[in-house]
Design brief:
Length: about 425
């Protein structure tokens, strides 16, 4: 008789709250906000099998983020000045697999920032905005990020805008927490002396990611219901974080010394990566009651350096299309429909799992394209009450991990009643 198989399930509770205040003082406007987010993963296994008694696993990783934002905006002649700051605390609580079955370790990192921005009205049709941000990271110290952006209304119908900016992004807390081991391996990995699941050990020696971005856009509007836009963008990343397996001197895959049921991985910085492309937008007020909107984005991404030089970045499809129609047959009634197309993706990295179709000898995977269609309506019952309903994914397209590297809901119905006071 075959042994009974125990069922299991996972819960992902998430809590979030925020408080904000806007002050209008005559000479300036202030904005202050405080937000807190907590996310956790809880796993339950039926013990014993077929008993309907589910026991929670000791390991329940939890991430907490607390962010305090504040800024002050004020006019100064032909200038609009913004001064602000941010405080961010990230906290990780988790059990290290193989180190202790019950000991929960905690890691915490604080990051602070100050910024200043000045919009200078050089002429009635031309504004130049300059900004500077200083990030202070608990591990990586100070980093300066300048920004320069220009907006020129060449005619009543055409606006040209563009600029350049620098960016700074520190690795995730789990990636740099000293001695912290987090499991990896992709969907379907196995645990054991010859298993494919692994651990990546936190490395505080990793460098932060920096980037330089350029953008140039042209926006046209005939002020009679028709508008269009085109944006060209380019971003050059340095020191993006990636992962790779550790190999022994004889070429075999190294196992984790604390628990040889796991392969050993390490994190490293990719020398460079680039993203470039174009975004096209359009809007047409076809009739008084019918409006059509569209958006298309072409993205070409490349890793430069490392084992996957020349391959696209993960989660970066080349083609994205969004279409939407809004029909308002009366002042109280609105109907809308939307189609969203997500193009094929290439995932070229050291740990991509078994999902997708292999497209190269290096193990790069390709995931299928998909399109989703939605429809909805809103009816104003009175001046203060509205009823809304929508059907998302009306074709009941099923997105699974194997073909699309993501999991999506099937057809679903959403209903909302709103009362305004």
């Amino acid at each position: 008789q075959a042994a009974a198989t125990a069922d299991s399930y996972t819960e992902n509770p998430r809590d979030h709250f925020s408080l904000s205040h806007t002050g209008r003082w005559g000479w300036a406007t202030s904005d202050v906000s405080l937000s807190y987010e907590q996310a956790q993963r809880k796993s339950f296994t039926e013990t014993p099998a077929r008993s309907d008694n589910f026991v929670q696993a000791t390991r329940a990783p939890k991430i907490e983020n607390t962010v305090l934002d504040g800024k002050l905006s004020m006019p100064l002649g032909q200038h609009w000045l913004v001064l602000g700051g941010q405080w961010n605390r990230a906290k990780l609580s988790d059990v290290n697999p193989g180190v202790s079955a019950s000991l929960v370790q905690q890691f915490q990192i604080d990051q602070k920032a100050l910024f200043v921005e000045d919009e200078w009205k050089l002429a009635d049709a031309w504004a130049l905005t300059g900004g500077l941000r200083l990030d202070n990271h608990e591990i990586y110290g100070n980093h300066w990020s300048p920004r320069l952006y220009s907006v020129w209304h060449t005619t009543e119908n055409l606006t040209i805008k563009g600029g350049v900016s620098r960016g700074f992004r520190a690795p995730e807390i789990r990636t740099i927490a000293p001695g912290y081991a987090y499991t990896t391996g992709g969907a379907g990995c196995t645990v054991g002396p010859t298993g494919t699941c692994g651990v990546i050990i936190g490395d505080p020696g990793l460098k932060p990611e920096t980037s330089t971005s350029w953008e140039l856009a042209a926006l046209w509007d005939n002020h009679a219901g028709l508008s269009a836009g085109a944006t060209v963008f380019y971003t050059d990343f340095k020191d993006k974080v990636s992962n790779a397996l550790v190999y022994n001197a004889d070429g075999s895959i190294a196992r984790w010394s604390a628990n040889n049921n796991y392969r050993l991985w390490y994190s490293y910085n990719i020398d460079r990566a680039t993203i470039k492309g174009v975004e096209l937008t359009g809007r047409w007020q076809a009739t008084r009651s019918l409006a059509l909107k569209s958006n298309y984005t072409y993205t070409d991404s490349r890793q430069k350096g490392g084992s996957f030089d020349g391959y696209a970045l993960a989660r970066t499809p080349k083609h994205m299309v969004n279409l939407r129609a809004d029909w308002t047959p009366s002042d109280a009634w609105t109907l809308w429909s939307a189609i969203n197309y997500h193009g094929k993706e290439i995932n070229a990295a050291a740990r991509v799992g078994t999902a997708g179709t292999t497209v190269s000898t290096s193990g790069a995977k390709q995931y299928k394209a998909y399109a989703l269609a939605d429809i909805g309506t809103t009816y104003e019952i009175g001046k203060l009450t509205s009823l809304s309903a929508a059907i998302y994914n009306i074709t009941d397209k099923r997105l699974d991990e194997q073909d699309f590297n993501t999991v999506g809901d099937g057809r679903r119905l959403w209903v909302s009643l709103t009362r305004r006071f």
